[in-house]
Structures are given as structure tokens and as C-alpha cells.
Amino acid sequence: MRAVRIHQYGTADELHCDAMPVPEPGPGEVLVRQHFAGVNFADVYMRNGLYHGEHTYGTQVPFTLGLEGTGVIEAVGKDISHLEPGMRVGYCLARGGYADFIVVPADRVIRLPDWCADDTAAALMLQGATSHYLTHSLFRLEPGHACLIHAGAGGVGQLLIQIAKARGAFVIATVGSQAKAELARSLGADQVILYRQQDVLDQVQQITDGAGVDVVYDSVGKDTIHISLRCLKVRGTCALFGASSGPVEAITPMELAEAGSVFLTRPHLAHYRRNAEEAQWRADDLFDLLHDGRLTVAIDSRFPLEAAAEAHRRLESRASSGKILLAI
């Protein structure tokens, strides 16, 4: 089979399509013949070595990239009764998704509804689960809450806007262009800030009459974290869940106090998707929103497996608007 691997940490130039043997599922595992694999910033962080040495996502080279995808079960290992060959499934947080086949632990597999296309489902696996735990578990949005969503036109940002509105929250989104501002508004954002032209903190203060927001969802990192903290209400929460502009090196405890005794958390999806029941619950919630028309999924682009490096460059350019997929 084909597998996109890296043999040393670095830029997208380090991605190579290698020939590998098709793996076999062990006990508690399934073999999935893949249709689509998702491309995420987590893949970039793993590729460039940012996660090297970390317990949750750390990986030693060489390895096959990719944490999510959709396809059909080809074979099942021992001790599995609820999954069988031919079943359409998705998964996330399994290693090796940039390949024709992948072995996935059964507790990370999601059963797909018949009406949902494979590419749409693939676009919801990791980014959808991320958006769900941020709005339902890390900080449970309710009517009356106000939230600030950075990168509102990105893959997660678009889902966050829609899910936050479905939960009754007031949504402020930051974007980089007028076209992306129009997109964010079309998804339900109540206010949109053009961060290249406007002062984000000043705009948030004006929009909230100086009160600030209850929660900031920050996937940008280095360029935004200090602003995010200052945009919060007293005792507000900042969820730093990405680093598209670079990792945050340090925050002093006094900065949290001076911002209003605020809370800062740096979560991993893996800690909010700990078993099969939690994984399926989050997915089913998302599929219900999709089926009811309260959620739409935007696919920015599809690349063939051999063009995974181009897909990474597209993602890192921050010009994409929606999900980037590898069509396998």
C-alpha cells in the first residue's frame, strides 16, 4: 500500500509517499480501507517536531502521518462483536491516516450514518470532535454567554461559530479578510473583527460594553494569546487549543490575575474523547446538527495522497477556508 511518511522532522518537503505492507489488525483493532484522510495542524506539529517527546502525540521518526479519516472496514481482529467488514466508519486519534489502509483501535471508530457522505464525515472527525468538546465540555456554552472565536473562517472556526450559535451564545469571530468576514457572518457570527485592520481588544471591549467575553477559543497561539486573556470577563476562560502562528512559550501567573483572575487551559482532544461511548456521543451530536441543517461542513480542497505536501502548504499558508482532505 501507499503511505505518506516522514523520516526526519522538518518542512512539508519531508513528506514522502512510500510503499508499505498492508497491516493486520490485532485483538481489539479493525483494518480500514480508506476513502478520505483529514489534514490538520496537529499533523503539521507532528511533522515539524513540535510534539516530539510529548506523551499524548509524540512520535519517533520514521512514521506515517494522519490522525483521522473515513472508509470501510476490511477486516476485524479478535474480541470485536459490534463492528464487521463492509461497515462504513470514521475515526480520529489513530496514527497513520495518510495511507491506503490503517489499523484503528475499535474504541476510536465511529459508525457513520447512511445519509452522510464520506468526505463530509471525514471533515467532522477531528475538527468536529474538537468543536464539540470545546463548546459542550471544556466550557459549556449556554444562552447569555459571549464567546470570541479566533480564525473564524478556518475549519474548526466555522464549526465553532455554528455550534456556539446552536447553543444560544453570542459569537464574535476574528478573520483576516473581508471575504472571510462575510463567510463568518453567513455562518451566524454576531460580530466579526478584521484582525489585520482593527484592534481586537478594543473591538471586543466596544462590542461587550467593556465587560469582555465569557470564553475565548484560541487556535492561533503566539500572536493572539495575550490579547485573548485581556478580552475575557472577570473569571473568564481561555481555551488555547492550537498554535497556527507558533507555540506559546510562557504565560506568567500574574498575567492571569491582572486580566481578571482568568483561567487558561491548554487541552488535548484525547482527554475529552477517552472511550468509545464518549467518541460516539460527540459524533452523534454533530450528525444530528448536520442532519437538521443547523450545521454545514465546508471542504476547502481535496488533494491526492501523493500530494500531501501540497496539502500541508495550503494549510500552513492560512489561506484555506474549511477542511483540507486527502482523497484516497
Automatic annotation (TrEMBL):
Keywords: NADP, Oxidoreductase. SUPFAM superfamilies: GroES-like, NAD(P)-binding Rossmann-fold domains. InterPro entries: ADH-like_C (IPR013149), ADH-like_N (IPR013154), ER (IPR020843), GroES-like_sf (IPR011032), NAD(P)-bd_dom_sf (IPR036291), QOR-like (IPR047618), Quin_OxRdtase/zeta-crystal_CS (IPR002364). This is Quinone oxidoreductase. Residues 10-326 form the Enoyl reductase (ER) domain. It comes from Halomonas kalidii. Pfam families: ADH_N (PF08240), ADH_zinc_N (PF00107).
